[in-house]
């Protein structure tokens, strides 16, 4: 099982000090992501997504600092989301994966991705919470 990195707080200034500097809530999600590596196009699946980054279950061919154009298959028959990101972290070996942080200045793509997270990931959590509260009342 691939485990995404955990954000840690710095004791000195309260800012995240992990390699991604994340400030977003992460949601488990398995989405297909197509991208180019060299002259070939390949794909991998996400382990988690957030409004600012995603974790791909592949580290092969990635280097920190590289920029990639990603095609993220969100749901159903919608056209894949085109979004650009920069490799923020690469983990090799057991649980290999890569964190890709979304580049600023692509507001329409980021808004569409956030809408997907709200409608898919958050909605599922709300449904699960409602079910657990109903069963606790019985």
- Counted by DSSP, the helix tally is 1
Q: Report the average pLDDT across residues.
A: 80
Q: Label the overall shape.
A: globular
- Strand count, sense and closure of the main sheet? 6 strands, antiparallel, barrel
How are helices and strands ordered from N to C? EEEEEEEH
| Amount of helix | 10-25%
Class computed from helices, strands and strand pairing = alpha+beta
Q: What order do the strands of the largest sheet run in, or round the barrel if closed?
A: 2-3-4-7-6-5
Gyration radius, in Å: 16 Å
**Residue share in β-strands:** 25-35%
Give the secondary structure arrangement, pairings included:
Blueprint: E1 27-28, E2 32-37, E3 40-49, E4 53-56, E5 67-72, E6 81-91, E7 97-102, H1 107-137
Antiparallel strand pairs: 1-3, 2-3, 2-5, 3-4, 4-7, 5-6, 6-7
Question: How would you describe this structure to a colleague?
Answer:
This protein has one helix spanning 107-137; strands at residues 27-28, 32-37, 40-49, 53-56, 67-72, 81-91, 97-102. With 138 residues, the chain is α+β, with helices and mostly antiparallel strands. A 6-stranded antiparallel beta barrel has the order 2-3-4-7-6-5. Mean pLDDT is 80; it is low at 1-20.
Features:
globular; six-stranded antiparallel beta barrel; alpha+beta; 22% helix; 138 residues
């Amino acid at each position: 099982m691939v485990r995404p990195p955990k954000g840690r707080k710095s004791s000195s200034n309260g800012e995240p000090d992990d390699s991604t500097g994340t400030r977003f809530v992460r949601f488990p999600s398995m989405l297909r992501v197509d991208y180019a590596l060299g002259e070939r196009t390949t794909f991998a699946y996400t382990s988690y997504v957030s409004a600012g980054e995603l974790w791909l279950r592949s580290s092969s061919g990635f280097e920190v600092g590289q920029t990639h154009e990603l095609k993220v298959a969100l749901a159903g028959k919608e056209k894949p989301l085109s979004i650009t990101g920069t490799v923020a972290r690469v983990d090799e070996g057991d649980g290999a994966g890569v964190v890709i942080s979304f580049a600023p200045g692509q507001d329409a793509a980021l808004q569409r991705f956030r809408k997907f997270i709200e409608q898919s990931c958050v909605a599922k959590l709300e449904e699960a919470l409602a079910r657990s509260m109903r069963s606790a009342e019985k």
